Amino acid sequence: MFEPVFLAQQALNGLSFGALLFLLASGLTLVFGLQRIVNLAHGAFYMLGGYIGVIIATTTGNLALAALVSMIAVGVTALVVELGLLRFVRGQEMPEVLLTIGVMFVVADLCLAIFGGDPKTLPSSAAISGALQVGTLTYPLYRIFVIGVAVVVGILLALVQSRTRIGAIVRAGVDDREIISAMGVNISWVFTGMFVVGAALAALGGTVGSGVLSIRPGTQNDVLLYALVVIIIGGLGSIKGAAVGAALIGVIDAFAKAWIPEFAYFTIFAPMALVLVFRPTGLFGRAA
Amino acid sequence: MIRKSSALGFLAVAVVLVAFPFLGTSAYQVSLASTVLVAAILASSVNFLAGDGGMGSLGHGAIAAAASYGAGWASMQSQSMTMQIVIAMGTGILASLAYGLLSMRTNGIYFLMVTLAVGMVIYGLAYRLSSVTRGENGITGIKRPELLAEPWAFYLFVVAAFLVVTVGLLVVSRSPFGASLRGIRDSESRMRSLGYYVPAFKLGAFMISGTVASFAGLLSVWHTHFVSPSSAEVHRSVLLFVMVILGGLGTTMGPLVGAAIVVLVENVVSNSFERWPTLLGVIFILAILFARSGLVGSAAKLLERWRKRSDAGRTPADSASTDATVSGSIPSA
Q1: CB contact under 8 A, B112 and A102
Q2: B278/A89 CB distance under 8 A
């Protein structure tokens, strides 16, 4: 139970799961930071992205292509949702969230209709095979790859946010929507763009994640729970918070599943409760 | 306070509900009507919290499930009926307390997310803690009291329960406590500066709502004799919210109307149309876009407009006091 190899294995499990959670939560938290809406269809976007990714990867055997196609497809779906539905209720918090619930219903049910009810996983031809060998520790390379993807995405997001004009506009939009639109930026399109980017990140998570967790009906709710817990702990709207929260929850979840499987859900709930009681805005969040 | 026409409407609904099993309806229809009413009680608890308190909960399905599991566990231990009821309500109320304590300092979206997350934890426990909950298989063979063994007797009991809950919540809503809740819904900072300790009111409202939800959970397990993790799924809580919005947030009869629509789509339409969740999702989206105050709220507005037109010139002062009944819009806090 406490052998070093076992501990290392669980820690890696936790970190790779945390990496997946980061891909999932970063999109959610970015959209929330800017638009103040919690997109409850985010889990359904992850699921749709996962299904599309698995299908492309099965036919072409190319993971990068699969990720790209699924990001574009889910991004277009999100664009339709944004322009066709969300724009009509902009600024009204509750109706916005409720609309995303309706979207979640429809997307999840259509996924079931199109892709069927069987669990789908990334084919081994597309996944990175082989294992990392350190002493007596063997660990699948694919999971290390997932960690790598999350680190790269995280660095890219941070760089875009802090170093580019687009990032500056987004940061200004978070701080003061009125001033930034008075300065000639069409904030409405910034919102739309961010919503699409968030959904595309979910699709990337779904495609990469389908090699770790199988995609099946109900996945949308499972991943949404984890994503919500991560962003509540990290602080809504904060990329740094999403990264720390994801790593924390990933590691806690891995060890809890190994040691006390009956209470596994409870153990991710406990840190969330602590954060809510002592720091309601999350570890890195700012007061609204 | 209560207008004569709405009191008459309430009475008419009560009469129809009581008469339903004696109108040559089949056993299946009566059972379906029981399902609708249990769902309506549960939806009423969500409606109270969201309508008066402005707190949209996505966790009430799991509160009801906690109570159902309480009853199921007690029945597995072959406890007496009284103990089963006590344990069921106790579990539900304890779960509500956990929700309430965690969410009482939050509002709006944060409240929604906290309730969602706690509900998912209850689902996780139901699923994983198999030594208590029997995991995925659920608990079967939970009996209801001898007195209610006959389906029609149980149906009438559920009708009575629904009417009592509806009137009870109306009384709470019209009490000073209810007025303070609406004050908090409309402006939390103003109430705080008036000296109200807001979290206590929120917790109180949650406990009232949670108790009603626990009762609905007990009734549901008495109805189906069965509880499984799927009853705690987020999906259930989301459907409750769909019921409340479809019926009309903050309206007295909205939960019943919304519950009837959702239960019928889920149980009847699903026989012939496989993609019923899509249908439900589309109905929900349309309701949010075009009929924000729900069916009951929109109907009341139409009625009001029609009455104003026919009353034009006669008693213009009278219609001013009636706006309070049509407070169906979704709070945007």
Answers
A1: no
A2: no
Contacts of A111 (CB under 8 A, 6+ apart): A44, A47, A48, A51, A217
Residues A113, B274: C-beta atoms closer than 8 Å = yes
User: Which amino acid belongs to residue B12?
Assistant: A
The two three-digit tokens of residue B138, written as one number: 């659920």
Please, what is the average pLDDT of chain B? 83
Which residues in chain A have their CB less than 8 angstroms from residue B120's CB?
Answer: 221, 225, 265
pTM for this prediction? 0.84
How far is the CA of B311 from the CAs of A208, B112, B305, B319, B326, in angstroms? 65, 42, 10, 9, 18
Cβ atoms of A37 and A89 closer than 8 Å: no
Instruction: List the domain boundaries for chain B.
Output: 8-326
Q: How confident is the model at residue B113 (pLDDT cuts 50, 70, 90)?
A: confident
Cα(B292)–Cα(B298) distance, integer angstroms? 8
| pLDDT tops 70 at residue B3 | no
What is the average pLDDT across A156-177?
Answer: 85
Q: Does domain B8-326 sit in CATH 1.10.3470? A: yes
Helix axes A42-60, A4-35, angle to 10 degrees: 120
pLDDT of B313 higher than 70: no
Check B288 against A102: CB less than 8 A apart: yes
Chain A residues near residue B127 by CB distance under 8 angstroms: 265
Determine, for residues B128 and A37 on separate chains, whether the beta-carbon distance falls below 8 Å: no
pLDDT for B62-77, tens place per residue? 999 999 999 988 888 8
Provide the domain limits for residue A56: 7-217
State how far residue B328 is from chain A, nearest Cα, in angstroms: 13
CB pairs A-B closer than 8 Å: 123
| Domains of chain A: total | 1
Q: Which residues of B touch A272 (CB under 8 A)?
A: 117
Give the residue-averaged pLDDT of A25-44. 87
The confidence score (pLDDT) of residue A18 equals: 92
Closest CA of chain A from B295, distance in Å: 16
Q: State yes or no: pLDDT of B326 exceeds 50.
A: no
| A263:B128 CB<8 A | yes
Q: What is the pLDDT of residue A1?
A: 66
B105/A280 CB distance under 8 A: yes
| Rounded Cα distance, A242 and A229, in Å | 10
B314 min Cα distance to partner chain A (Å): 38
ipTM above 0.90, yes or no: no
**Is a pLDDT exceeding 70 seen at residue B319?**
no
**Min distance A279 CA to chain B CA atoms (Å):** 11
The four Cα atoms B286, B289, B290, B293 give a dihedral, to 10 degrees, of: 100
Residue A287 located in a structural domain: no
pLDDT score at A53: 92
